[in-house]
Amino acid sequence: MSRRAKFLLLTPLFLLLGIVVVYVFVSWHPANPLRFRVVDASLPSLWQYHEDTQITVAVENVTSTPIYLRYLTLPSPPWVPGTRKVCGSVVSREQHRHRVGAQGNYLLVPAHSTIHVAGLVMNERLEDARAGRLRASYTWMSRLKYRCSTFSEWCGRRVPQKLSRYLPRPSHGVDECPLEATVP
Predict the structure, then answer these.
(1) Taking the chain (184 residues) in consecutive chunks of 10 residues, what is each chunk's mean pLDDT?
(2) Could you tell me the sign of the dihedral formed by the alpha carbons of 24, 26, 30, 34, in that order?
């Protein structure tokens, strides 16, 4: 086979390989992919906790890849001494509409879209949440990383235990951003 024929056959192969590498690079771990906004903070509580108020939080995905949200917590502000470490949260197991994954432990936020979820916030921090003075800390995975994690767990259950520890386990992304204020 001539050099020219080899070149013409290998060029499309390397181009396709390059496209796959770029896709994995871009979608594996996008930077700070979610934004959070308090939509409604006047809902009657459906929970058993009396010191917490139920709120509705809009979760916006600003990236071009779907995101699996695991946890969203609202750490207590540093200017409030002597309170719990977390003043609010959204737990994926409590949502019924957007739940995905094993035992529904993740919320799927499609690319470039917004979902509304229920959460809790301490009564003392409710005005801070409405005013946008709180920060949201969240744990997440991109779709590609989630699929790799699921596949790794599946393989881990099927191979001998001595080999399962050598399987890669993609880690969750942990980011923090402001909990945006309620729009009047």
Answers:
(1) 84 86 80 87 55 81 90 73 62 61 74 86 79 85 90 88 84 88 66
(2) negative
Overall pTM surpassing 0.85 (yes/no) = no
| CB-CB contact of 179 with 128 (8 Å) | no
Give me the long-range contacts of 143-146 (CB less than 8 A, separation at least 24).
143/27, 143/65, 143/66, 143/67, 143/68, 144/24, 144/27, 144/28, 144/65, 145/28, 145/29, 145/170, 145/173, 146/68, 146/101, 146/106
Q: How far apart are CA 107 and CA 91, in angstroms?
A: 9
